């Protein structure tokens, strides 16, 4: 659900040029990836599936096909630590960042939210802030990382999804597509292809710990 709402949010605010899903051996990939493909197709956005088979082969997590049974319980419960895929977002964001720069995109969006913070360290704002700085400093394009839901809970995301007309009951909505966009002019010049720099600046000031890049 989170990623679908983020994708629709990106479509409203930016010119989205591509969406990415990762086939990393998750027990849910067979449902998530077709959902992501459907969302992108309906929006007229190119969708790429990137294989990360080594994650399933080498990493330990019950979320993976190579792991044990997914535990029962709320996703914030302590036993859900067994579903953590080590450094998953770091790996996926690194790949997505390289792809974004390669296709002339200038940023990407991820749907990490406050409900993920209890269990998943690579969904927390300190990690996202560090990753954002690494992406901006490590690319000629200064790729930006947007995480509009980082301080929002599930209820707030559901509300925003309803406002955007997202079909929330649709199955396998947790597809984790990463939306890329291209802006109309070079940052920090004036307008985006859709939306304005003011939209991004207000989001950055609202997100916990967000600040302008320290890159030279």
Give the helices and strands, then pairings.
Blueprint: H1 2-13, E1 16-23, H2 29-43, E2 47-51, H3 53-58, H4 88-102, E3 107-109, H5 125-137, E4 144-146, H6 154-163, E5 178-181, H7 197-206
Account of the protein in words:
The C terminus is likely disordered. The chain is of the alpha/beta class and 216 residues long. The N and C termini lie far apart (37 Å). The chain has a 5-stranded mixed beta sheet with strand order 2-1-5-3-4, sandwiched between helices. The longest helix has 15 residues. Helix content is 38%, strand content 11%. Strand 3, helix 5 and strand 4 form a beta-alpha-beta unit. The protein contains 7 helices and 5 strands. It has a single domain, classed as HUPs (Rossmann fold).
Low-confidence stretches are: 170-177, 181-214
Biggest sheet architecture? 5 strands, mixed
Gap between N and C termini: 37 Å
- Helical content stands at 25-40%
CATH class identity: Alpha Beta
Question: How many structural domains are formed by the residues?
Answer: 1
User: Which fold name fills CATH's third level, the topology?
Assistant: Rossmann fold
What's the CATH H-level homologous superfamily? Answer: HUPs
Order of helices and strands: HEHEHHEHEHEH
Estimate what percentage of residues fall within beta strands: 5-15%
What is the structural class?
Answer: alpha/beta
Provide the CATH architecture.
Answer: 3-Layer(aba) Sandwich
| Shape annotation | globular
Q: Which whole number gives the mean pLDDT?
A: 78
Give me the count of strands.
Answer: 5
Instruction: Enumerate how many helices there are, as a single number.
Output: 7
Rg computed from alpha carbons, rounded to a whole number of angstroms: 17 Å
Major beta sheet, strand line-up: 2-1-5-3-4
